[in-house]
Amino acid sequence: MSIESLKNSLPAHARDLKLNLSTLAAETTLSEQQKAGAFLATAIAARNAEVLAAIEAEFLPRLSPEAATAARAAASIMSMNNVYYRFVHLVSAADYKTLPARLRMNVIANPGVEKADFELWSIAVSAVNGCGMCIDSHERELRRHGLAPEHVQAAIRIAAVVFATAVTLDAEAGASARAEAA
Predict the structure, then answer these.
(1) Which of 16, 137, 151, 178 has a Cα-to-Cα distance from 90 of 20 to 30 A?
(2) Positions marked active-site
(3) What's the confidence (pLDDT) of residue 178?
């Protein structure tokens, strides 16, 4: 499966997603590694096997083994961190904000790729998972590493379209299952 087959699996009402997938696959604001890693990390975060298979087929060949591992690590670690830090941010009791997380996050310090790339993938996953505290933290770090807002926006656009594609395909699969059961 590839981006083209993924686009073909989308229903007619998701025409904008098809167009956006094409546009983002050809995105030039990001380096090839940044783009491919953003697609991979957000496909993992979107939790749809069809989307992940298509993204892997299209973008894994564009990543070194180290970059592919780092993109997967960003999806993994941010899935944990996004739950924890979203809780800390949303809970009313202030004492949680002063407690140490006591969660292992060693990969953030040594991701195996340029720190800016890992941070970019982390912010994209954080956007999918809706953690404002993590989004703010990674955005500050990306600016510190010299990335422009356009770089961050490109990664977030990828996250938005990958996630919307997964949601759409999940809905279509559910509709098909309900129709078969009826």
Answers:
(1) 151
(2) 131, 134
(3) 63
177 pLDDT above the threshold of 70: no
Contact 107, 77 (CB under 8 A): yes
Domains in the chain with CATH codes = 3-98+112-181 (1.20.1290.10)
126, amino acid identity: S
Per-residue pLDDT tens digits for 24-81? 999 999 999 999 999 999 999 999 999 999 999 999 999 999 999 999 999 999 999 9
Query: Distance from first CA to last CA of the chain, Å, rounded?
Result: 30
Place of tokens 């510190």: 144
Mean local confidence (pLDDT), 118-147: 97
Q: How confident is the model at residue 180 (pLDDT cuts 50, 70, 90)?
A: confident
List CB contacts of 144: < 8 A, sequence separation 6 or more.
none
The answer to whether 155 touches 34, Cβ cutoff 8 Å, is yes
